[in-house]
């Protein structure tokens, strides 16, 4: 018992000392500025994606997530299936998490215990990351079209509608 306690105290002391050394050498700020999408920007992305799909005769659901993967805007067109809501969220979450269009991830994780089996990750076309000056600020997912390619084109149209604004806001 005494040996275990001594080892624990030595370990904790070493850990505390090493943490102190790291804190002294790094000049970490006390607070970090984090860029976030405004509600109006997220809404513009979602509305534009819906309109792009409507132009193709398709009714879909669209979810825009923030940089933490939390839904910021969720829209479902009148005839889009209820299931499309969950699928659009998962596509948006996946695009934001992997900073990549979800179509490029479809064949990436094929093992039975791969990342693709984690909750909320959906490796299917229709998700696009939202970036500003190379920094990921969210993701948009579209679901309900006859193909993931159409879903992704609509999602890309939504991002394209605000792309210039996002780049200008970064300066």
TrEMBL record:
Q: Does the keyword Acetylation apply?
A: no
Work out whether the entry's keyword set contains Signal.
yes
Annotated InterPro entries: GlcG_carb_metab_protein, PduO/GlcC-like, PduO/GlcC-like_sf
The superkingdom of the source organism is Bacteria
Instruction: Cite the Gene3D superfamilies for this sequence.
Output: Haem-degrading domain
Signal peptide (residue range): 1-23
Q: Which UniProt keywords apply?
A: Signal
Q: List the protein's name.
A: Heme-binding protein
User: Source species, please?
Assistant: Marinobacter albus
